[in-house]
Amino acid sequence: MQEAKVWGFEDIESAREYLAKYLLNYINMELDALPKEEWNKTLKTWAKICLFAYDMLSKKDEERQELYKKYNFDPMMVGIAEDLRHTLLGMYSLRILKESDKPYKLIPMAVDMVLQRSEMIKAYGLKKEILEYIRDFFHKPPTN
């Protein structure tokens, strides 16, 4: 994967802040707006989005834009996919995420990193209950 420095991922602390400000903020807002019985389904969707973003890593900008158009992505969906792609690049560049890791491992790794800094949870309006739910969801054994 990419070895160069990635904006927002210059070091572990900047990565932690980026993850809180963007990835976890998106997921936190979405889950907070949903009834709790919808959270598992939503987190499964986020795992799939991570896989999609991983598939976009090797594609040039023009090719990605064509795929977004082909699949009728709205601007919000494009933004999330591009941000997840950037986040994966950043996590690989710091070797927090390894090539052998499943792309969705990004999410529980992000939660673990941010839960270590309670001031970030507060600063970005994240809910500890939601972060713990996300962590537990991704750490439990898969069910059919």
What does this structure look like?
With 144 residues, the chain is mainly alpha-helical. Helix 6 packs across helix 8. The N and C termini lie far apart (31 Å).
Summed up, what is this model?
The chain has 144 residues and is mostly helical.
How do the helices and strands line up, and which of them pair or pack?
Blueprint lengths: L11 H10 L1 H10 L6 H18 L4 H10 L4 H19 L12 H10 L2 H6 L4 H12 L5
What are its keywords?
globular, single chain, mainly alpha, 0% strand, 66% helix, 144 residues
How large, in whole angstroms, is the Cα Rg? 15 Å
- What about the largest sheet? none
Measured between the Cα atoms of the first and last residue, the distance is 31 Å
Mean pLDDT level: 94
| DSSP summary: helix tally | 8
Strand content: under 5%
Which consecutive residue ranges, at least 5 long each, have pLDDT under 50?
none
Shape: globular
Structural class assignment: mainly alpha
Helix content: 55-70%
Number of strands: 0
Strand and helix order: HHHHHHHH
